[in-house]
Amino acid sequence: MSGKNMFSLPFVILFVALAINIGYAWSWRALALSVPGALLIIKGQMTVFGARKRGDHTMQTGKANPYDKVFVYTWGEVIFMMGWILICWGMAMPNK
Q1: Is the dihedral of CA 91, 93, 94, 96 positive or negative?
Q2: Burial category of 84 from C-beta neighbours within 10 Å (exposed 0-12, middle 13-18, buried 19 and up)
Q3: Which residues of the chain are modeled with pLDDT < 70?
């Protein structure tokens, strides 16, 4: 868990920097697509890791997790992919 926490801030910084770089290099429309895309990617990762933590608790302790559910698939995957689609659309914008 400490490794995940240690690398989470650089992950966030790199994705926000990617979104800003796309907007700076292409146009304001690209920025308007890429920044929300980066935020959705980050939110999707947070959702997926939260579900994994609940699943890990169940597997390690043999008890039901605090939410009394085991998630296999969550909305995190959908949110993550929506973010990548927005970033790709931003990069596909015509150059200035």
Answers
A1: negative
A2: middle
A3: 1-5, 52-60, 62-72, 95-96
Task: Count how many Cα atoms sit within 13 Å of the Cα of residue 73 in the half-sphere of its side chain.
Answer: 4
Query: Which residues, 6+ apart, have CB-to-CB distance to 27 below 8 Å?
Result: 93, 94, 95, 96
Query: In this structure, is the dihedral angle defined by the CA atoms of residues 26, 28, 31 and 32, taken in order, positive or negative?
Result: negative
Q: What residue spans of the chain are helical by DSSP H?
A: 2-25, 28-61, 75-91
pTM: 0.72
Q: What is the pLDDT of residue 19?
A: 81
Nearest to 15 by CA among 47, 40, 38, 45: 38
State residue 38 phi and psi, 5-degree precision.
-65, -40
pLDDT at site 31: 85
pLDDT of residue 6: 73
